[in-house]
């Protein structure tokens, strides 16, 4: 006769709950899986499906009751790890959107704003266009599959543990956030440079022919030049965007390693357990 105790049930719950929490954290923060257009039921179903697949291969976890205070702290920590990994990819999309905002303001399209369901705010037309292009590139490069692979790898580099994570990973995340501004300016530099030359030429033309109406001809010219430069630079955005995605995924992969190095320094003796029948 098979007997199941409450301790076995707690172990089974912990074996699924803790990996599921990290997976749902990444799904909630990542730009593709966490899009507001995706129903919440689909996100939860995807997270549960991935957790069922990943849980049997997850390294041993601490013998902690998932309903205790220590178990709830582990849940919060796992959620934080997943959010940090998804946020590292979200920064890349934020940099592309910033490049679109800068280009739109330089072109004079600051008034052409639309509701962005992703951020529940307003963004310019060029920003949404570049965001869609980045999303298509993200899917074409199979970066979403590589991100899920990095998530599974994180359970080995940073196993589920009751030890608190080190704050050095948060500093790396803050430093990585600076790429939003540097990358956004670099991606929008061709449009800004072309419109700067256009505005200088319009200023010289107005100085040479004062009878011309600068406000009447300036806006169509800057708008046309801006759209033309965007169309010309669009085929060349593949390589830098691909490099940005690779850097973001590498950042998401290295972040758990940074926290795991800190745990390895001050790791106390703990009794890892395995649920009965799940792996060796």
Automatic annotation (TrEMBL):
Keywords: Bacterial flagellum, Cell membrane, Cell projection, Cilium, Flagellum, Membrane, Transmembrane, Transmembrane helix. It comes from the Bacteria. The gene is fliR. Role in flagellar biosynthesis. PANTHER family: FLAGELLAR BIOSYNTHETIC PROTEIN FLIR (PTHR30065:SF8). InterPro entries: FliR, T3SS_IM_R. One of its GO terms (biological process) is bacterial-type flagellum assembly. Its main location: membrane. This is Flagellar biosynthetic protein FliR. It holds the Pfam family Bac_export_1. It is found in: Cell membrane; Bacterial flagellum basal body. It comes from Duganella callida. It is a multi-pass membrane protein. Residues 261-280 are annotated as: Disordered. GO terms for cellular component: bacterial-type flagellum basal body; plasma membrane. Belongs to the FliR/MopE/SpaR family. The chain crosses the membrane at residues 12-32, 44-63, 69-93, 129-152, 187-205, 212-237.
């Amino acid at each position: 006769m098979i007997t199941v105790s409450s301790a076995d049930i707690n172990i089974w719950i912990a074996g699924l709950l803790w990996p599921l929490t990290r997976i749902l954290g990444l799904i909630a923060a990542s730009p593709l899986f966490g899009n507001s257009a995706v129903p919440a039921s689909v996100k939860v179903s995807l997270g549960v499906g991935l957790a069922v697949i990943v849980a049997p291969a997850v390294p041993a976890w601490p013998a902690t009751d998932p309903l205790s205070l220590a178990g709830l702290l582990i849940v919060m920590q796992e959620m934080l790890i997943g959010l940090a990994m998804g946020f590292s990819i979200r920064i890349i999309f934020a940099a592309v959107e910033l490049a679109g905002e800068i280009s739109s303001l330089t072109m004079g399209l600051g008034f052409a704003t639309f509701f962005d369901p992703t951020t529940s705010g307003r963004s310019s037309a060029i920003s949404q266009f570049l965001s869609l292009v980045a999303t298509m590139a993200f899917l074409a490069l199979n970066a979403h599959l590589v991100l899920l692979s990095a998530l599974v790898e994180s359970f080995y580099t940073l196993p589920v543990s009751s030890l608190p994570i080190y704050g050095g990973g948060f500093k790396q995340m803050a430093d990585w956030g600076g790429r939003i501004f540097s990358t956004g300016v670099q991606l929008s530099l061709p449009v800004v440079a072309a419109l700067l030359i256009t505005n200088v030429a319009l200023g010289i033309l107005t100085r040479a022919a004062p009878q011309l109406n600068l406000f009447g001809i300036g806006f169509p010219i800057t708008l046309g030049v801006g759209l033309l430069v965007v169309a010309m630079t669009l085929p060349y955005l593949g390589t830098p965007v691909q490099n940005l995605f690779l850097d973001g995924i590498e950042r998401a992969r290295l972040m758990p390693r940074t926290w795991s190095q800190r745990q390895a320094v001050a790791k106390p003796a703990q009794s890892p357990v395995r649920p009965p029948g799940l792996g060796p």
